[in-house]
Amino acid sequence: MTPTVDLDLPGAPADTRVVVAMSGGVDSSVVAGLLARAGYDVVGVTLQLYDHGAATARKGACCAGQDIHDARRVGETLGIPHYVLDYEQRFREAVIDPFAASYLAGETPIPCVACNQTVKFVDLLQTARDLGAAALATGHYVASRALPGGGRGLYRPVDADRDQTYFLYGTTPDQLSLLRFPLGGLPKPAVREVARELGLIVADKPDSQDICFVPNGRYADMIEKLKPGAAEPGPVVHIDGRRLGTHDGVLRYTVGQRRGLNLSVGEPLYVVRIDAGAKTLVVGPREALETRTIRLRNMNWLGDGAFEDVAGLAVRARVRSTRPAVPARLTALGPAEAEVELLDGESGVAPGQACVVYDEATGERVLGGGIVRPQPRVPAANEAASEAMR
């Protein structure tokens, strides 16, 4: 039985236009199908985001050749208008170039966050407005609900294994007022069953991978193509100052990484810090990765009240999409700067990753998040490392 959807919009569905962001995958296709079945005036829009030559037939790609074809076929099956918009240049400027620059700066960026903050929830949302739509619906596994004091809040979905709130923390309150996420109350198996009931060709299509524009997952090769000479070798230095070897480019490493260091020192060592300016990897034992306090930039606030008034707020913090949210305290340091105290500590928190905070009581509501800044350097280790490199 096909689930019913309620977008919490005024007016009859037949008089309400909704633009659906259709990636060519099963999730967004089902959203389009559910809304069409509910009687909404549905318009499907697919964004061509990058040169799809290398990814036309690659499993796990999205927003490329085969996916655009699949989205078009779904539109035909559902009997809804479908348009493809060329956003390649915008995607390059807003997502790919900053992704490469972040890696070259010694960070570990999340391009999906940047894509949602720019191309999808700014540019595409404006396109939806231009088309006279009352809402933009997507296939993300998150939920949004009206808040008692007005506006809408962002919440975790029913299917915890598919939770995508980590990647959508940057959604603004203004954007949330126009965004709808019909899959927030459905588990993934149910979504595929709906796709079969609707006769959609994507019912059993594999899910897309995270970094859609990197063929074969080799992001370092892609960055070298964009920035020739980017993967320059440099020293690998222990936190005690000993030079242990040479790496083949800082962009190939992230904080917390152990594999690929090619060191024979008789003990397991991890990347503790990346000094991109000096092309240096600083390594140490696992305990050197422990972190209790992190600083955030580009903070987006979705909680109640003014962010500047937040001081020692009890929250749950998530420092990677694959990790659980842990007890923490949040303090505003400025309009878009924050400090998060991780009460039990975390290991291997990498600069460039996101830290997303949830309400402390239930851990369900997203209160916001920001990008992890590089940890302050340890002077003694830096001085010893500099001496070792001379």
TrEMBL record:
Where is it localised?
A: Cytoplasm
Q: Upper taxonomic classification of the species?
A: Bacteria, Pseudomonadati, Pseudomonadota, Alphaproteobacteria, Hyphomicrobiales
What is any Pfam family matched here?
tRNA_Me_trans
Q: Which gene encodes it?
A: mnmA
Q: Which organism is it from?
A: Methylopila capsulata
For whether the record's keyword set contains Cell division, the answer is no
Family membership, please give it.
Answer: Belongs to the MnmA/TRMU family.
Q: Which UniProt keywords apply?
A: ATP-binding, Cytoplasm, Disulfide bond, Nucleotide-binding, RNA-binding, Transferase, tRNA processing, tRNA-binding
Domain tRNA-specific 2-thiouridylase MnmA-like central, first and last residues per copy: 231-284
Q: Which HAMAP family match?
A: tRNA_thiouridyl_MnmA
Give GO cellular component annotations, separated by semicolons.
Answer: cytoplasm
State the protein's name: tRNA-specific 2-thiouridylase MnmA
Q: Which GO terms describe its molecular function?
A: ATP binding; tRNA binding; tRNA-uridine 2-sulfurtransferase activity
| Catalytic activity, reaction form | S-sulfanyl-L-cysteinyl-[protein] + uridine(34) in tRNA + AH2 + ATP = 2-thiouridine(34) in tRNA + L-cysteinyl-[protein] + A + AMP + diphosphate + H(+)
Spell out the NCBIfam families in the cross-references: PRK00143.1 (NF001138), trmU (TIGR00420)
Disulfide-bonded cysteine pairs: these are: 115-212
